[in-house]
């Protein structure tokens, strides 16, 4: 294992993003199309929030009905906007943070993804899955 390895070694880039004005249906399509669980919400590439698939599932009947065209989901989604559902107080890391630093943050908090920013602009995302994959390569 490389001591002080930067998070830029394992972060995902480019990042799938949303804007506050995007619909929750758009968010659901992106989650499913890209097989991801976290999407940063940006304004001019500056992170203003984070939406997780779990946030959507709290509003949705998608997994209960197993029907991707659920009219009930569309109705519920139309009652909310991304700005209302997203997490607003986001911790970010920079590309120079070490993998160990990021692992400590994720281990001590109740979330599973961190936006990676440089000069206040989104450049990547790192998830607990990225960390697990990195650790598995070490064995």
From TrEMBL:
InterPro entries given in the database record: CBS_dom (IPR000644), CBS_dom_sf (IPR046342), Diverse_CBS-Domain (IPR051257)
Top-rank taxon, per record: Bacteria
Record bears the keyword Lyase: no
Keywords: CBS domain
Gene3D superfamilies in alphabetical order: CBS-domain (3.10.580.10)
Residues covered by the CBS domain: 11-70, 86-139
A Pfam short name: CBS
Protein's name in the database: CBS domain-containing protein
Top-level taxonomy: Bacteria, Pseudomonadati, Bacteroidota, Flavobacteriia, Flavobacteriales
């Amino acid at each position: 294992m490389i001591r002080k390895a930067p998070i830029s070694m394992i972060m995902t880039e480019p990042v799938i993003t949303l804007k506050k004005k995007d619909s929750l249906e758009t968010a659901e399509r992106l989650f499913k199309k890209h097989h991801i669980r976290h999407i940063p919400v940006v304004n001019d590439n500056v992170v203003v929030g984070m939406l997780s698939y779990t946030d959507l599932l709290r509003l949705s009947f998608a997994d209960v009905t197993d029907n991707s065209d659920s009219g009930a989901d569309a109705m519920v989604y139309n009652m909310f906007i991304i700005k209302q559902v997203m997490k607003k107080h986001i911790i970010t890391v920079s590309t120079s943070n070490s993998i160990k630093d990021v692992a400590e943050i994720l281990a001590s908090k109740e979330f599973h993804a961190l936006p990676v920013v440089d000069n206040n602009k989104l450049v990547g995302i790192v998830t607990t899955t990225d960390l697990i994959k990195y650790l598995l390569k070490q064995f």
